[in-house]
Design a protein that fits this description.
Keywords: Carbohydrate metabolism, Lyase, Polysaccharide degradation, Secreted, Signal. InterPro entries: PbH1, Pec_lyase, Pectin_lyas_fold, Pectin_lyase_fold/virulence, PEL. Pfam families: Pectate_lyase_4. Belongs to the polysaccharide lyase 1 family. This protein is mostly beta strands. Helices cover about 5% and strands about 35% of the residues. The strands form 4 sheets. Strands 5, 7, 9, 10, 12, 13, 15, 18, 21, 24 and 27 form an 11-stranded parallel beta sheet that branches. It is built from 3 helices and 27 strands.
C-alpha cells in the first residue's frame, strides 16, 4: 500500500528515541526535513531505537570500537576519524553506531549476529576484507546513509533467518558483490517466512551484481533506488523469493532485474512504475505477497536527482 507524496528532502538527524546525536543534514531537493526514524520492514516486530537514550561514547581506535559495539548494554557509539582494522567486529543488541562527519572504517566490517534493535548510520566503509555489514540471526536492523566502496565480499549481506530489516539511503560504488539476501538455496528450513527486507533510496554507482540477490524472502521490497551503470545485473529473485521492484531509476544498466541466478532457480518478481534510461527492460513473472506497510513513493523519473544528492554518508 502506498501513500502518495514526494520526498522533498531528508536530514540524517533522527528522532531522539532512535538516535541521540545529530550526524548532519542531507538535502535532496529544495527543502530538508527531519527523518522520523526507520520505515519499511524494520518497523515490524517492535520498535527500532538502537541505543536509545544511552550517553553517546565517541571512539577513535579499533580496540575502543570493538569493545563499544560488543558490550552487553545499550549504547550509542560515535565514530570519529578513520579507524583501520581487519575481520568482522561483533555487534550486539540495542546499539546505535553512527559516524561523525568524515568517519571511515577501513579494512573491517560489522557482524550483527543474534542481535536485535540495531542502527548503523553515516559511516564510510572502505576496503573491507570480509563483509562490510553482515546481518545473521538478527531482527529489527536499520542500515541507513552509509557509503561503501572497494571491498572484498558483500557490502550489506543479510541471511540466516534474519528478519525486519530496512536498508535505506546508502551509496555503493566501485564494488562487485553488493547486497545478498539469503546465503544458500539449501537453507529454506531457517529462512522460509523470514528475510523480509526493504531496500529504498540506495545509490548503486558502477557496481556489478546483487542489488539485491534474493532467496526465500517474500515480500522483499526494492523501491526508489538509483542504478547507475550497473555492469552485470540489478535485482535477482531466486529460490522461492518474492520481490517487488517499483519506482526505481535504471540508467546504463543492460539487465535491470531478472528471475533466477547461477544455479538458483527462478523466484517471483513483480516490477512496476520503473524508469529506464539507456537500459534493458528486465524480466519478471509470478506473484509477490502484498506489502503490509504504508510508504511514500517518489516518482521514478525524479529518483536520480533525489538519490544521487542524498544517499551515502555525510
Amino acid at each position: 500500500m502506498t501513500k502518495n507524496g514526494t520526498r522533498a528532502g531528508r536530514m540524517l538527524g533522527l528522532a531522539a528515541a532512535a538516535l541521540v546525536a545529530v550526524a548532519g543534514s542531507v538535502a535532496t531537493g529544495s527543502t530538508a526535513h527531519a527523518a522520523a526514524g526507520p520505515d519499511g520492514w524494520a518497523t515490524y516486530g517492535g520498535s527500532v531505537t538502537g541505543g536509545g537514550g544511552a550517553p553517546p561514547v565517541t571512539v577513535t581506535s579499533a580496540s575502543a570500537l570493538t569493545s563499544a559495539v560488543s558490550s552487553s548494554s545499550a549504547a550509542v557509539v560515535r565514530i570519529s576519524g578513520t579507524i583501520s582494522c581487519s575481520g568482522m567486529l561483533k555487534v550486539t543488541s540495542n546499539k546505535t553506531i553512527v559516524g561523525n562527519s568524515g568517519a571511515v572504517i577501513q579494512g573491517c566490517g560489522f557482524n550483527v549476529n543474534k542481535a536485535s534493535n540495531v542502527i548503523i548510520q553515516n559511516i564510510s566503509f572502505r576496503n573491507w576484507n570480509d563483509d562490510a555489514i553482515n546481518v545473521q540471526y538478527s531482527t529489527r536492523v536499520w542500515i541507513d546513509h552509509n557509503s561503501f566502496s572497494n571491498g572484498y565480499d558483500g557490502a550489506v549481506d543479510i541471511k540466516r533467518a534474519s528478519d525486519y530489516v530496512t536498508v535505506s539511503w546508502n551509496k555503493v560504488a566501485s564494488h562487485n558483490k553488493v547486497m545478498l539476501l539469503g546465503h544458500d538455496d539449501g537453507n529454506g528450513g531457517e529462512d522460509r517466512g523470514h528475510l523480509r527486507v526493504t531496500y529504498h533510496h540506495n545509490y548503486f554507482q558502477g557496481t556489478t551484481q546483487r542489488h539485491p540477490r534474493v532467496r526465500f524472502g517474500n515480500p522483499v521490497h526494492v523501491y526508489n533506488n538509483y542504478f547507475a551503470g550497473v555492469t552485470s545485473y540489478g535485482v535477482a529473485s531466486t529460490m522461492e523469493a518474492g520481490v517487488l521492484v517499483e519506482g526505481n531509476y535504471f540508467e546504463n544498466t543492460k539487465d535491470p532485474f531478472h528471475r533466477g541466478e547461477g544455479d538458483s532457480p527462478a523466484g517471483n518478481l513483480v516490477a512496476r512504475n520503473n524508469y529506464f534510461a539507456n537500459s534493458g527492460a528486465g524480466s519478471q513473472g509470478g506473484s509477490v505477497a502484498g506489502i503490509p506497510y504504508g510508504y511514500s513513493m517518489d516518482s521514478a523519473s525524479s529518483v536520480k536527482s533525489i538519490v544521487s544528492s542524498g544517499a551515502g554518508a555525510h
